[in-house]
Amino acid sequence: MDSMIAAALEFLQTHPTLAPVLALIFAAAETTAFLSILIPSTAVLVAGGAMAATGKVEFWPLWAGAAAGALIGSTFSYWLGRRYGRTVLEMRPLSRHPEMVEKARAAFVKYGPATVTVGHFLTVLRPVVFLLAGMKDMRLRRFMFWNLLGCAAWAFLIPKLGQFGGDILGWLWSQFA
Question: I need a surface site. Which of 61, 65, 101, 137 has the fewest CB within 10 A?
Answer without folding.
Answer: 137
